[in-house]
């Protein structure tokens, strides 16, 4: 297990300097775009911040996960495909687990990290002072 984790870590770190490294900027940027768009929609619709709803409200988790997948699904699939192409170009074979791990780090994590804070920032900066 320890050797496998070391191999995966080394393989992921090698992606920074190899071919197709532009995806390391492109995919998080796309995920950030969708997170900002969804965060703004959350504010407009009066919803609570996404991650807190996902963690706290068990009844709506499936709906929230479906909503996020609609936003980030294409970016995730593109990230898996591009990582598979990278692996084939560099090593001559494809490790699907590594491709999914890379896609998760490049697409899903930025989306989850940014959506809630975007909504919070917009809420705080757009509040109008109500006269007493």
CA-to-CA gap between the ends? 63 Å
Number of strands: 0
Please indicate the count of domains. Answer: 1
Q: What is the mean predicted local confidence, pLDDT?
A: 82
Description:
Helices cover about 80% and strands about 0% of the residues. The chain contains five helices and no strands. It has one domain. The chain has helices at about 1-15, 25-45, 50-55, 60-90, 95-125. Helix 2 packs antiparallel against helix 4, helix 2 packs across helix 5 (about 95-125) and helix 4 crosses helix 5. It is mainly alpha-helical and about 130 residues long.
Essential attributes:
mainly alpha, 5 helices, single chain, 132 residues
Would you spell out the secondary-structure blueprint of this structure?
Layout: H1 2-14, H2 23-45, H3 50-56, H4 61-91, H5 96-126
Helix pairs in contact: 2-4, 2-5, 4-5
